[in-house]
Design a protein that fits this description.
Chain lengths: ~140, ~280
């Protein structure tokens, strides 16, 4: 795979090939999402981290006015418990809904989020795709 | 009779086929060997090397002249910023720097481009170091610029010992302290491009006016074949980033036109990127 195709794949992963988070959230109703989890995977924090890595870029891409905060807590101690939660913030900044992300797969977290947040699925005509058919460079 | 002949014919064909494939792989191996040989420099004569360099230069020139929109990774700046912000989501603000890289095409041996950009929206506070042995000036400058690094021989020796980190972006000096700087900290400041010198215009006895002129502008310098410069943060608005890009473009072009060579360098492909994000080609001409 050439560098350019790799790059196009990366861009398309953000804007078109990741389907689940292609939603529009009303910025008049919600101000943002706040994720809190560990930097390390132990105690069931992997799903949260993968959710951030796989789905948040797409959510941010189609909702530029929503603020996404990620708080990663450094904790090496496996005995200690660290919160692993996703908070939905309303316009005034207070928490309206909380989703527990511990021991869940990233897809399940996304489905939980879709259940709890009011949204419109993105119309197909608005999906942005970077054409991966190589226009010639030379 | 025919049938008798036909069978060996098939045999022959199949055997030659096998043979062909066999030799092909051998040939490929030989070819591979020869290319591996040619990649070693000694097998190229001087003339050939020169020819190759000229050819590559011509290719790079041609690429520089092609409009940015023909590149598959080209995007308008506003769309590019949307992608970069998405790639940077959830990262600490200190890591969300957007940077601009411009390739420079020119013949070998031309002086590297350098200059400074005055950003309408600066990324951060620029720290300056001033070296002087003049006590009165020291006092005056310390009162005027309390946040900057100002000192004399004492400061030089502390930088030499590593007590003070080299975190300033620019340095100025008066002529009386230059020998001390060159003998003691040239090896520390030189590679970072913050060693005051007469040639650069950063040594002067009238330091106050020099400082006033240059505060609030960010220096840049060509490294290898490109100039790279932090241009904004992800939380800047599109307008602010665009204004910074325009300022950078003006400064880069001024640096090119200031060049005193017969064949000036030209600016080529320009990419906008961020700390964790992809590089996206933008129109910079």
């Amino acid at each position: 795979m050439s560098k350019v195709t790799e790059q196009l794949k990366f861009l398309n992963k953000i804007s078109s090939t990741t389907n689940l988070p292609q939603i529009l959230i009303d910025p008049k109703k919600y101000s943002g999402l706040r994720l809190t989890f560990q930097t390390k995977n132990h105690n069931g924090h992997m799903g949260a981290r993968v959710f951030w890595h796989n789905y948040l870029p797409t959510l941010q891409f189609y909702n530029p006015r929503i603020k996404f905060d990620v708080v990663r807590i450094k904790n090496e101690d496996k005995q200690k418990s660290v919160p692993c939660k996703l908070e939905i913030l309303c316009q005034e900044g207070s928490v309206t809904e909380t989703i527990d992300m511990r021991n869940k797969m990233h897809e399940d977290i996304m489905r939980d989020l879709l259940d709890k947040i009011e949204h419109i699925p993105l119309p197909e005509s608005e999906v942005m795709k970077v054409p991966s058919s190589l226009r010639s460079i030379h | 009779m025919l049938s008798v002949i036909a069978t060996p014919k098939i045999c022959v064909v199949s055997s030659t086929r096998r043979c062909l494939s066999h030799t092909a792989s051998k040939l490929y191996a030989e070819e591979y060997k020869s290319t591996a040989m040619s990649s070693n420099a000694p097998s190229l004569t001087k003339e050939q090397a020169k020819k190759r360099e000229l050819k590559r230069l011509a290719q790079r020139r041609a690429e520089a002249k092609r409009p940015a929109a023909t590149n598959p990774l080209y995007m308008p700046v506003t769309v590019a910023l949307r992608y970069l912000r998405a790639a940077e989501v959830g990262r600490p603000q200190s890591q969300q720097t957007i940077n601009l890289t411009t390739l420079v095409v020119g013949e070998r041996g031309t002086a590297p481009l350098s200059g400074s950009v005055a950003f309408p929206k600066p990324l951060r506070y620029i720290k300056v170091a001033v070296f002087t042995n003049d006590e009165n000036k020291l006092k005056e400058l310390r009162e005027k610029y309390p946040n900057h690094l100002i000192g004399g021989a004492d400061l030089v020796s502390r930088i030499k010992n590593g007590e003070i980190p080299v975190d300033f972006d620019k340095a100025y000096a008066t002529a009386d302290i230059v020998p001390a700087l060159q003998s003691q900290v040239a090896r520390i400041l030189g590679p970072r491009g913050v060693l005051p010198s007469v040639k650069k215009g950063t040594v002067s006895d009238d330091i106050t006016s020099l400082l006033q002129e240059s505060l609030g502008s960010m220096p840049f310098r060509q490294r290898g074949n490109s100039i790279s410069l932090g241009i904004g943060k992800c939380y800047f608005t599109d307008r602010e980033v665009l204004q910074n890009i325009i300022a950078a473009r003006a400064a880069f072009k001024a640096a090119v036109s200031d060049q005193k060579s017969k064949k000036p360098n030209i600016l080529s492909k320009t990419t906008l990127s961020s700390t964790h994000g992809p590089g996206i080609v933008i129109d910079f001409a």
